[in-house]
């Protein structure tokens, strides 16, 4: 296993000796991962290798049976009330947008800030319009999700996450469900976030994005981190046979 090449003294995310099982099936094995503030990480690997499970552990959508996870000083494995604290710090964007279909775009964006940040409606709407403007769809604010294209819906999902002022953003194959012509608008939004210094972990097979944006690319197979490194090294000189096979299939 490649040693963790980025074990900064005070990482914003630290996973140590993480192991997780679904019943008898071990989905994550001996995961050690440290992420520093502002770092941009791309995670790739074959389907079923545990990528989604790994990032879902970071906002406690999944629990682990063994090992430690600390996010911005919050110890997740300690359980209980830490879950709310960490959800406030970590935004997540899914493959299937997951917008609330019965709420307008604006309401999708204001719901969580009003409920869990205690914002007034006026304040939440102001914040929401700021981020909808940033993802370049303020004019869609009063429409419903079904009236938007997939690319627009995914940009709303990103804006909605940003309204909670997260310190970390997790992306789980955010462009995989999109028609090809909409991939770029979502990647451009993500590039903008990266340029602003957001700490990001992105599960994606968009290797162009990985090359130009990632500080580090992590390759997973069968529940393990098999190889990781800066994109030039990762793509230019992949060391592990499984990495080479994978890159051979997708590039
Ligand atoms: P990836 O995102 O890399 O495709 P996942 O993390 O989604 O991989 O899944 C890893 C493995 O765990 C797969 O074999 C999948 O079938 C299994 N798995 C995922 N979620 C569950 C679950 N809730 N219960 C049982 N097995 C699961
Ligand atoms: Mg997945």
From TrEMBL:
Molecular function via GO: ABC-type amino acid transporter activity; ATP binding; ATP hydrolysis activity
CDD domains registered for this protein in UniProt: ABC_HisP_GlnQ
InterPro entries associated with the record: AAA+_ATPase, ABC_ATPase_HisP-typ, ABC_transporter-like_ATP-bd, ABC_transporter-like_CS, MetN_ABC_transporter-like, P-loop_NTPase
Keyword ATP-binding: yes
UniProt entry keywords in alphabetical sequence: ATP-binding, Cell membrane, Membrane, Nucleotide-binding, Transport
Residues covered by the ABC transporter domain: 13-247
Keyword Flavoprotein set for record: no
Family the UniProt entry places it in: Belongs to the ABC transporter superfamily.
The protein's name in its UniProt record: Amino acid ABC transporter ATP-binding protein
UniProt source species: Xenophilus arseniciresistens
Phylogenetic lineage: Bacteria, Pseudomonadati, Pseudomonadota, Betaproteobacteria, Burkholderiales
């Amino acid at each position: 296993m490649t040693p963790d090449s980025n074990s900064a003294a005070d990482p914003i995310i630290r996973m140590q000796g993480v192991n997780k099982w679904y019943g008898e099936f071990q989905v994550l094995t001996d995961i050690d991962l440290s992420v520093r503030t502002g770092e941009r990480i791309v995670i790739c690997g074959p389907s079923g290798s545990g990528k989604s499970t790994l990032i879902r552990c970071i906002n406690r959508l999944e629990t682990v049976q063994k090992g430690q996870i600390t996010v911005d000083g919050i110890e997740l494995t300690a359980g209980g009330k830490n879950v709310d604290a960490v959800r406030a710090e970590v935004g997540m964007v899914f493959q299937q947008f997951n917008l609330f279909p019965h709420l307008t775009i604006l309401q999708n964006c204001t719901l969580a800030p009003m409920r869990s940040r205690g914002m007034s409606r006026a304040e939440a709407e102001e914040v929401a319009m700021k981020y909808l403007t940033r993802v370049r769809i303020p004019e869609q604010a009063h429409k419903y999700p079904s009236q938007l294209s997939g690319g627009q819906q995914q940009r709303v999902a990103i804006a909605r996450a940003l309204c909670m002022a997260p310190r970390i953003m997790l992306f789980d194959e955010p462009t995989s469900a999109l028609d090809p012509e909409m991939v770029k608008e979502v990647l451009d939004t993500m590039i903008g976030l990266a340029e602003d210094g957001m700490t990001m972990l992105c599960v994606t097979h968009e290797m162009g994005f990985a090359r130009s944006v990632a500080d580090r690319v992590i390759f997973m197979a069968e529940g393990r981190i098999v190889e990781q490194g800066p994109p030039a090294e990762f793509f230019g000189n992949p060391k592990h046979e499984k990495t080479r096979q994978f890159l051979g299939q997708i590039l």
